[in-house]
Amino acid sequence: MASGDFCSPGEGVEILQQVCSKQLPPCNLSEEDLLKNPHFSRLLLSLSQHVDESGLSLSLAQEQAQAWKKVRLHKTAWLRSEILQRIIQELLVDYYVKTQDTSLTSEDKKFHETLEQRLLVTELTQLLGPSSQERVIPPLLGLEKADLLELMPPSEDFVWMRARLPLEVEEQLKKKCFTLLCYHDPNSDSDSETLKAAKVWKLAEVLVGEKQQCQDAKSQQKEQIVLLEKKSATYSQVLLRCLALLQRLLQEHRLKTQSELDRINAQYLEIKCSAMILKLRMEELKILSDTYTAEKVEVHRLIRDRLEGAIRLQEHDMEKSRQVLNTYEVLGDEFDRLVKEYTQLKQATENKRWALQEFSKAYR
């Protein structure tokens, strides 16, 4: 570190490479940021001595590693018991399947029945929980462990079954290992059993190697992501500077001639618009000249004269009718009374004429 609270450009690069990229979690910092914030640079160097690459303190990281070690040990023990439990259940399932298809020997039936009986009694005993002296709540279905122990198979059958069980479990595990090998390497399906066993023996190492390759690839991907983020930030700054430069060039050079260019473009568009209007008018006149010939125009003129004459006659008749109506309006209510009386007399005459016609039809 340089004298005082400041770092030189070379030291800034060293801090970025050793501290920000490796010892601390990924952070988007540049050398320029460290030069502008010297106290922050010293803070990063101090933090790098007390935290790991995940951001945890060294003591807490050590405690976390020990805790994970204990978790893995407990997980391994649980997986072993879980695998054994599932293998035994699969043996019983295979036994029930075989009883439907083939005839089993008495020894096979005895083995599977003893295994099933022992497994069920053990599981039920575990469900009951602690003994009656330690139990607070009443037992399940009022059963005690002594009641279940009476259902245990005979001791000689249990000893015989226990001696045979490892062989059955080993055979079942071998089938599963071969299945896993064929899934991992389908070409191994046609190999002999001895060759398959040799490949299964090395399968764990192969899987560990592939897992390590995946982890290395993930680490490289993480480094590439950090590098990409740094490049993206750098490129963004460069692009911003380029945009600022382009904006300055536009303001200094293009905008000076923009008004003249706009005026010329406006004149051009105006002339073009006038030409288009004239062209449209010419097309309109051309269509009219093609549509209306001299004969058609003469016929239309005659038709128009006749229609105008008819209109004048109608207007003359309408004027006469209007004068008659004005005369009637002068008479007032008396004229209305006479019209109503005339209407009633006409209606009565029509009724009597209809009745006379009906009587004439009846006496014919």
Automatic annotation (TrEMBL):
One of its GO terms (biological process) is spindle assembly. One of its GO terms (molecular function) is microtubule minus-end binding. Coiled coil: none annotated. Pfam families: HAUS4. One of its GO terms (cellular component) is mitotic spindle microtubule. InterPro entries: HAUS4, HAUS4_met. It comes from the Eukaryota. This is HAUS augmin-like complex subunit 4 isoform X2. It comes from Pteropus vampyrus (Large flying fox). The lineage of its organism: Eukaryota, Metazoa, Chordata, Craniata, Vertebrata.
